[in-house]
Amino acid sequence: MHSDHAVEKYANFERLDAGYKQRILDACIEEFSRNGYESASTNAIVKRAGIPKGSLFYFFGSKRDLYLYVVDHAVKRFTAEFERISADSRAEEPSDLFERLEQRGEARMQFVIQEPLLYQLFFNAFIDAPEDIRSELQLHYASYYQTSTRRLQDGLDRSRFKDDIDVEKAIQLVNLVLEGLYNRYLPAFKTMTPTDALGLVEEIGVEVQTYFEMLKKGIYKPKFPGK
Fold first, then answer.
1. Cα(10)–Cα(14) distance, integer angstroms
2. What DSSP designation does 2 have?
3. Can you list the positions of beta strands (E) in 114-206?
4. Which of 52, 61, 134, 206 has its CA 20 to 30 A from that of 185?
5. Which segments of 25-103 are extended strands (E)?
6. pLDDT digits (tens, 9 = 90+) for 101-134
7. What is the spatial distance between Cα 179 and Cα 196, in angstroms, rounded to a whole number?
8. 220 has which bridge partners?
């Protein structure tokens, strides 16, 4: 999707006026995020975007290529905004795993409040899309995942973990719990005002802390859970 071949494939779309492009993207994000890849309707997209019926296939060739382009757009927006939100805090990134994950979670929640549909599309692409598409996405973004994992682990205070704990697996466990918790609340953000969403984020933060305290007792040495 970032390759020269991909740039050439989507050249007709990339040459469009920025406002026209955004209108099409907004319609695609709405349809794919609410209905998933298989149930999404290209007819609904062109109707919502107000463009001729054959335009999508002229610009993208197929529904599959359209979906891959829109997911790539969502990933780029998410990563760019996540980097922007968390940039100020990175210089002082905590050495404690739970404090670091909490900091990153807050940045993610800010993005969810701002772009709930975009985040829904981004998240669903990696769990609900057809297997061949998920495999392609996982392969394409493998380096991003590796970089993100490395950043999470770099500089962690590993002395806090119990001696018999596999640190990498412990980090994966905590991440899985956090991912499940955040995404359980995701549908609620779609119908909320920004003010209500901020209130929900506070509630989520309290629940996160409850789970963190439980997890600390399982993987940290006794002297650390209270910190």
1. 6
2. -
3. none
4. 134
5. none
6. 888 888 878 888 888 888 888 878 877 788 899 8
7. 21
8. 161
Contacts of residue 135, defined as CB under 8 A and 6 or more positions apart, other chains included, come to none
Single-letter amino acid, residue 192: M
Which structure tokens are listed for 110?
Answer: 């800010």
One DSSP character per residue, 203-216 reads HHHHHHHHHHHHHH
Can you tell me which residue has the tokens 């995701």? 186
Ranges under pLDDT 70 in the chain: 1-7, 85-91, 190, 194, 224-227
Looking at residue 109, the DSSP 8-state letter turns out to be: H
Q: Rounded distance, CA 18 to CA 157, Å?
A: 46
Rounded to whole angstroms, the Cα distance separating 199 from 131 reads 36
Determine the pLDDT at residue 70: 94
Strand ranges inside the chain, DSSP E: none
Domains of the chain plus CATH, in order, are 4-219 (1.10.357.10)
Question: Other C-beta atoms within 10 Å of 211: how many?
Answer: 15
